[in-house]
Amino acid sequence: MKLRPHHLIDIVCDYGQGAAFEPHPYGHAVHTVAARVIEDPDMEVEFVVAADDICVPCRHLQVDGQCDDVLSQLAEPVSKQSYNDGLDHKVLAFLEMQPGVQMTVSEFLDRLDAHMPGIAEVCTHPGEKQRHRLGGLRKGLLKFAEKRGN
């Protein structure tokens, strides 16, 4: 499976907050990828700064692999492609990883845990409270740890 690092962080955070993973009007695959990740944290993932397995079915993914969506909620609207690429480069650098690295979800979770609470500063989305993000990440990591028997 190919994933953007921030997509997996979003899943961990949402899982920790008890969010329901349901189909989205855009058609992306967060709900199905989240189910697979939660079911099998020993699954191997390749971390990419590009369209990933979540993006593939999305109506905003163009044939050239670029997202045509815009983050219009920002003071100065920016393309989601540009925002996500920048975010994922920052996340990878903070976690001391390179694009294309492969590891299991569990190994990534351990890396996230080792970089708490700083990772929340790096990956909190615009309009989201950092404390809320950090709480969701901590709860998500705990839920995964319980699932793994740690």
Q: Strand share of the residues?
A: 5-15%
Q: State the order of secondary-structure elements, H for helix, E for strand.
A: EHHEEEHEHHH
Rg computed from alpha carbons, rounded to a whole number of angstroms: 15 Å
**Biggest β-sheet: strands ordered side by side in the sheet:** 1-2-5
Number of DSSP helical runs: 6
Count of domain modules: 1
Query: Which class best fits the helix and strand makeup?
Result: mainly alpha
Strands, total number: 5
pLDDT averaged residue by residue: 95
Q: Which sheet architecture does the biggest sheet show? A: 3 strands, mixed
Distance N to C terminus? 24 Å
Low-confidence stretches: none
Shape: globular
Helix residue percentage: 40-55%
SSE inventory with pairings:
Blueprint: E1 2-3, H1 5-16, H2 30-39, E2 44-47, E3 70-71, E4 78-79, H3 80-94, E5 102-104, H4 105-114, H5 118-123, H6 130-148
Helix pairs in contact: 1-6
How would you explain this protein's 3D organization?
The longest helix has 19 residues, at 130-148. The chain is mainly α. Strands 1-2-5 form a 3-stranded mixed sheet. The model has no long low-confidence stretch (mean pLDDT 95). Helices cover 48% and strands 9% of the residues.
What is this entry, summarized?
This protein has 150 residues and is mainly α.
List keywords for this structure.
150 residues, mainly alpha, three-stranded mixed β-sheet, 5 strands, 9% strand, globular
